[in-house]
Structure formats: structure tokens, C-alpha cells
Design brief:
Radius of gyration: 31 Å
Cofactor: Zn(2+)
Subcellular location: Membrane
Keywords: Hydrolase, Membrane, Metalloprotease, Protease, Transmembrane, Transmembrane helix, Zinc
GO molecular function, one term: metalloendopeptidase activity
Membrane topology: Multi-pass membrane protein
Shape: elongated
Distance between the termini: 28 Å
Number of strands: 43
Strand order of the largest sheet: 6-5-10-9-7-8
């Protein structure tokens, strides 16, 4: 019984409740729009035949002054029916009713048409003002990370004079912890506005950011100038313009409700106070600590906290946890590229070369890739000659086995019974697959299934049936894949690599480097680092037989400790650093509300421009179902966030509805402007043809977008 109650509560909280909130919110937005038409129509003397709350069959109501005021079955908005005005039905000639929409002046009719969008804007302004008085939280405009090779990392910063002759007037590159104060002269209160400004910017746009940087007890303010480049847009299949910055987080463990992570002794809501007794004040403080890690376990001091950051908890609430850092391949400030000839290249940028003649004869021109080298040079290689750049671990050409560090709930891996910490022994027909091979097997067996064998709790498990599924167009099983760093088993040997030349085979277990015992991959890396400049010999077992592999003195490019990095809490998300906007002064709240309306209007038009210019993909368009899906996710974050979102929808509805397209209010406004210029309206025949044509195009667009929305929603549930 208790389980049933919890299940019902979960379904209500996750789906039913948010969907009802969206239906009510959308209904309110549409109702306000129609109310605007109604008020102005009555004001100019147009006979309103029907004013309905909701749509569908009439439930009840009253008739007064020739108007039917009614409540309809479906509580989704409402509508107004005026005499002589039709949105989709063919217009009729010869209307002589003085209360008809068609017999009013152009100015009066324009006022009625525009009243709906004006009402949406007024409604949004009022709601924004109320939210400003109550208070709302947003991700703070503070930088948490800067990606190498992106404009933010290369931005020129001119600092304001702080009176200290020892501080430089200029510097290059934004840093974690920098707070963005303004963007092109406008105040920035939330990080999301930085992202949208970049995504919707026209090509070649240059931005100026006013930033505040604190180092120790010194705070400086400066102006950073930068452009944009295209990069992957998280959560989508498209590339968009980006600055190359990510939002800051707090050193407090959050929760990812969709992911099952390996047990690590840490809990949601705990604040990281120190690592190996080094104090942690900000999440970005961990970067300097991680830079000095060598794979050995560290002691993490944590303390439970709540959303109010109360400091009066009992002293014994603080505890220490031993955490083993995760071994990862370096991705900053360069990435390692392995070539088919066995050589290794370290590049700050890896980009496909655009061939102007590709359209003429693509078959004879193999794709090429430009590598920007760390020494400032560049190298162009054939794409087929790159073995991999997937940032998987590669030590002298040897790769560790794969390990599932986390599983996504409801996805194939979790449904099949796999667990966090499982080591992949075989998948499909491949023993100890690499990451690239795992992805290839996902593609090969998508929707038809195969078997996977894992190593768990000290023994190899029986084969498990698993069926990869497509998610966002990519076959996957829903697993966070990392390296099995605790077992020195060689899962793969790269061809023509030092390990291949030394005779290391797939499946070998390494036990010693020269005379140094090793049992884990971090220990192997530390041993190779300690033996720099000396001949290297690996000892171990290959099945039941001992093996020995002589490498000699390693070449400078074969092994670099900098090619690897260690990360703490790799599967533990931190809470987003939030800022609270609350205006106790009503005038300040009014100013903030008006600014939010202005911003959303500008962003709506910028979005349309970006779609027309091709800087944003049409795949990003959302119809009613897509908007409902987003609304459900926002509703789960709380009522204030949801009301803010619906106010944004109200502004967007105003902008879209006043576009100069047939059937929409903007299309009617165009007819009125033409009538004003010509001195007489277009013929009913022409207007009907335009209206019907526009309706067909609009319905076609809605159907296409809705179909994509349905595919996304179904895919997410699958």
C-alpha cells in the first residue's frame, strides 16, 4: 500500500501535476490575449457574439447585451467571436451591420487586432514585477570553467587603474571565478543570458564584457573583448556560437535523479570543506588541487548543510571520507591525437579542413584534418590516418578495460541489470572493447540486442542480454563509461605503438615496471614518470604464462605525465551557484519587470533572425508538445520558476502572433496597412486566398514541428 502511494505521488509530482500547471498557465496566457481583443472591441463598438472561457462544447454561461459569456469543456485559454471578423473562415461581402468588425475604421480595427499582443505584454510585465518583488533564483553570472581554444580563453582584458603600479593593465583570458557584470553595456543578472546572447548573435559579432575578478584580498574590474566560434551545444546534435565558458557551481553535492552512480561514501547536500587539509571555498578551488594529484587516494572533509547554509550544526557533523581520484586523459590545454603510423601528436585544436572543391569531386579527395600543435605550428593529416582522439586512456599504446561508473535510469544498461562499478569483459563479439569499439557495437546491435559480460565483486558474471537504443539519434546503452584504473589489465594495444613494438598483447596483466611493483594504472604512470630517461621493462602475466616486454629508453613523445589528469568527484554533480533577484523597492521591481519584457522581445526576434540566417538549426524549433515537455521540466523546479517561464511564453506568443503572416494577428494588421495606403481594402477573394494559403502553410509547419516533438518525447521515454 505504501509503495502504491509513493508511486502515485511520484507520477503526480513528475508528470500529472506539471502538465496540469502547464494547461492552466497556457490557458491563462491565451485567455489574457483574447481578453485584450474583447475589451478594445467593446470599446470601439464592435458587437462581440461570444466570449468564452475555455474551448470545446459549452457547459454553461449567460447572455447579456447580445454576447454569450460561456464556460467551455476544455479549460485551455478562450476565444472571442466578433461580428464580421473571421480568422480562418472565408470572408463575406456586403456586410452592412454597423457593429461589424468589417465596418469600423482602419484605426479601430488595428487597435482591436493589436490589443491581444499588447495584453500579453502587459500581463507578462505585471507577472515579472510580482516575481521581482517575491524573489527568484538564477544561475549566477560567474564563470566556472573556460574551454581552451574558445574566445573566452583568448579574450583581451583591459583593467581599470587600481592605483597599484605592480599590477598589469592588460591580461589575456577569462578565469574561473570571474563575475560578469555587463554584456555590451547591459547589466547581466543570470548566466543563461550570456549563453543565449552567444547562440543568437549574428556572424562576426564582437562582445564586450565588464568583469570583476577577486584574487586573495584584491578585487579588480576590467573589460574583456571577444568574438564567438561554433561549438557543440550540450544536449543537442547541433553546433552553435559560444564564448567557451561554463557556469560556476558551489562545492555542495547535488543530485542527478536520472543517474545511478557507484557508491563512494559521499552524500547529497554535503559541502566539501577541504581536500588533504587544503581548504575549499569555491568549486573552482578544486582545479589547482586536482592539478597536483598523482592518483593516490585523498582525504576529503565534508559537512552536511542545507539550502540556508546554517552554521550552527553540531561539530561532529563534519566527517572525512577517503576518495580515489579518477584517471582521465588530458583535455586542457591540449588533446592527444594518435596517428596510424604509431606517432603521437599533441594539438590544441582538431578541425576538419573545408575543401572548396569538395562538391566537384568528393570521391577523389579524402577528408583532411588540421591539427594546431602545442608548439604553435600546424599539421594537416588525412582523417583516415587518425586512430582516435576520444580522450580515452592510452599509456605507451596500452589501454585499460572499460568500467561503468554510472547508469542512467530506465536505459538499456540499467534495465539489463548492470551496476555501477562493473568492468566490461566482453561486449557483442568483442573481448575487452575500447570506447570506440563499444560505440561501434552499439550501432551494430541497436534495437536487436546482444550480450555483455562484466567483472563484478571479484568474479566474472554470466552473460547478460542487452539491447542498445537510439537517444538523440545516437545508439547507446545509457552508461557513464570510464577506465578500470584499479586492475592493470591491458584491454587493447594500439598498432605500431611502443607497446605493440615491445610485444605486449591484449589481456596481459602488468605487475612490475623494472623492479617497481605496480597494481593499478596510476601506479604504472607514476613508475614510468620516476624512471624517466632509463630503459623500461614491463613484467607480468599473459594468461598463465609470464611475460616480459622491453621498451628501452622512451622517446620524448611516447610518454608524458601531462597527458593524464585526475579528477575528484567525477560522477558527483555540484549544485549550481545561484544568485537571488529580489527587489523590495516597487519602482526597482517595475524597472526589472520592464527590462525582462524588453529582453524576451529582443531574444524572440533574435531567434527568428538566427533561424533565417542558419546560425541556429531548425531542429531546435519546438511546437506545442515540445513547449509542454520543457514546461513540465520547469514546473518540477517550483512554482516561481514555472510562472516566470509562462511569462516568457506570453511575450513570445505576442511576438509570434504579430508576425506579418496570414491567419495571425500580424497578417490581419498587414491587410489593414495595405487598406490604409490604398484607400480601400483588398478584394475579399484575394484576402480569402491569402488566408487559406497561409493557414495551409502554418498547419504544415505545426505538423512537422509536432512530429519532431513527438519523436523527442517518445525517444526520451524509450
Amino acid at each position: 500500500m505504501e509503495l502504491a502511494v509513493l508511486t502515485i505521488q511520484g507520477v503526480w509530482g513528475q508528470y500529472v501535476g506539471p502538465l496540469l500547471m502547464f494547461a492552466i498557465g497556457l490557458g491563462a496566457v491565451i485567455f489574457v490575449h483574447e481578453l485584450g481583443h474583447f475589451i478594445v472591441a467593446r470599446w470601439v463598438g464592435i458587437h462581440v457574439e461570444t466570449f468564452a472561457l475555455g474551448v470545446g462544447p459549452r457547459l454553461f454561461g449567460l447572455r447579456r447585451g447580445g454576447t454569450d459569456y460561456s464556460v467551455r469543456l476544455i479549460p485551455l485559454g478562450g476565444y472571442v467571436k466578433m461580428a464580421g471578423q473571421e480568422d480562418v473562415a472565408p470572408l463575406k461581402e456586403g456586410d452592412t451591420d454597423p457593429g461589424s468588425f468589417a465596418n469600423k475604421t482602419v484605426g479601430q480595427r488595428f487597435a482591436v487586432i493589436a490589443a491581444g499582443v499588447v495584453m500579453n505584454v502587459i500581463f507578462a510585465s505585471i507577472v515579472f514585477v510580482v516575481i521581482g518583488l517575491i524573489g527568484i533564483q538564477f544561475p549566477a553570472p560567474v564563470i566556472g570553467g573556460v574551454e581552451p581554444g574558445f574566445p573566452a580563453a583568448q579574450a583581451k582584458i583591459i583593467w581599470q587603474d587600481d592605483g597599484d603600479p605592480n599590477t598589469p593593465d592588460e591580461s589575456v583570458g577569462l578565469k574561473p571565478g570571474d563575475r560578469i557584470l555587463t554584456l555590451n553595456g547591459r547589466r547581466i543578472h543570470q548566466f543563461g543570458k550570456l549563453q543565449f546572447a552567444a547562440i543568437l548573435a549574428p556572424r562576426g559579432r564582437i562582445f564586450e564584457m565588464t568583469i570583476r575578478r577577486t584574487a586573495g584580498d584584491k578585487t579588480r574590474v576590467g573589460t574583456a573583448t571577444m568574438g564567438l566560434i561554433k561549438g557543440d551545444h550540450p544536449g543537442t546534435e547541433t553546433k552553435v556560437f559560444r564564448f567557451g565558458i561554463s557556469p560556476a557551481t558551489e562545492p555542495i553535492f547535488g543530485v542527478n535523479e536520472d543517474v545511478i552512480v557507484t557508491e563512494d561514501g559521499l552524500n547529497e547536500g554535503e559541502r566539501v570543506l577541504a581536500v588533504n587539509d587544503q581548504p575549499i571555498e569555491h568549486a573552482w578551488d578544486l582545479r589547482d588541487i586536482e592539478a597536483d594529484l598523482d592518483g593516490r587516494p585523498v582525504t576529503v572533509t565534508v559537512r552536511p548543510t542545507d539550502d540556508n547554509e546554517q552554521e550552527d550544526q553540531a561539530p561532529d557533523a563534519t566527517r572525512t571520507v577517503v576518495v580515489r581520484p579518477k584517471l582521465l586523459a588530458a583535455n586542457k590545454p591540449y588533446r592527444v591525437v594518435f596517428l596510424a603510423d604509431g606517432s603521437t601528436v599533441r594539438a590544441t585544436s582538431v578541425k576538419k579542413v573545408a575543401d572548396k572543391d569538395e562538391k566537384d569531386d568528393p570521391s577523389d579527395k579524402p577528408s583532411q584534418v588540421r591539427l594546431m600543435l602545442v608548439d604553435g605550428g600546424e599539421r594537416i593529416v588525412a582523417e583516415k590516418d587518425i586512430v582516435h582522439t576520444d580522450r580515452s586512456i592510452d599509456v605507451l599504446g596500452m589501454a585499460p578495460r572499460l568500467l561503468f561508473e554510472g547508469l542512467t535510469k530506465g536505459h538499456p544498461a540499467a534495465k539489463a541489470g548492470l551496476k555501477g562499478g562493473d568492468v566490461v569483459v566482453s561486449y557483442g563479439d568483442r573481448s575487452t572493447p575500447t570506447l570506440a569499439e563499444l560505440r561501434a557495437i552499439n550501432r551494430e546491435f541497436v534495437d536487436r540486442g546482444t550480450q555483455i559480460v562484466v567483472f563484478r565483486n571479484g568474479r566474472t558474471q554470466s552473460p547478460i542480454d542487452i539491447r542498445p537504443r537510439k537517444k538523440q539519434g545516437k545508439p547507446q546503452i545509457g552508461a557513464l563509461v570510464m577506465s578500470d584504473q584499479e586492475h592493470l589489465v591491458v584491454a587493447h594495444v594500439r598498432k605500431r605503438s611502443p607497446a605493440d613494438a615491445a610485444g605486449v598483447a591484449r589481456g596481459c596483466i602488468i605487475e612490475k615496471v623494472n623492479d617497481l611493483p605496480v597494481a593499478t594504472w596510476p601506479e604504472l604512470i607514476r613508475a614510468l614518470t620516476a624512471l624517466k630517461g632509463k630503459p623500461i621493462t614491463l613484467h607480468g602475466r599473459n594468461g598463465s604464462q609470464p611475460f616480459k616486454a622491453d621498451f628501452g629508453i622512451l622517446a620524448a613523445g611516447d610518454f608524458r605525465p601531462q597527458d593524464y589528469r585526475y579528477k575528484l568527484f567525477a560522477t558527483r554533480p555540484f549544485r549550481m551557484l545561484k544568485t537571488t533577484i529580489r527587489n523590495t523597492n516597487p519602482l526597482q521591481a517595475l524597472a526589472w519587470g520592464i527590462e525582462e519584457v524588453r529582453y524576451n522581445v529582443v531574444m524572440a526576434y533574435a531567434n527568428l533572425r538566427a533561424l533565417l540566417q542558419g546560425t541556429v538549426s531548425t531542429k531546435e524549433l519546438r511546437g506545442p508538445i515540445g513547449i509542454a515537455d520543457i514546461a513540465v521540466q520547469v514546473a518540477r523546479q517550483g512554482a516561481i520558476r514555472f510562472v516566470y517561464f509562462m511569462s516568457m511564453i506570453s511575450v513570445m506568443l505576442a511576438v509570434i502572433n504579430f508576425l506579418p503572416l496570414p491567419v495571425l494577428d500580424g497578417g490581419h494588421a498587414v491587410f489593414l496597412l495595405i487598406e490604409k495606403i490604398r484607400g480601400r481594402p483588398l478584394s475579399v477573394k484575394i484576402m480569402n486566398a491569402v488566408q487559406i494559403g497561409g493557414l495551409v502553410l502554418l498547419l504544415g509547419l505545426v505538423l512537422i514541428v509536432t512530429w519532431r516533438d513527438v519523436e523527442r518525447v517518445v525517444e526520451s521515454f524509450m
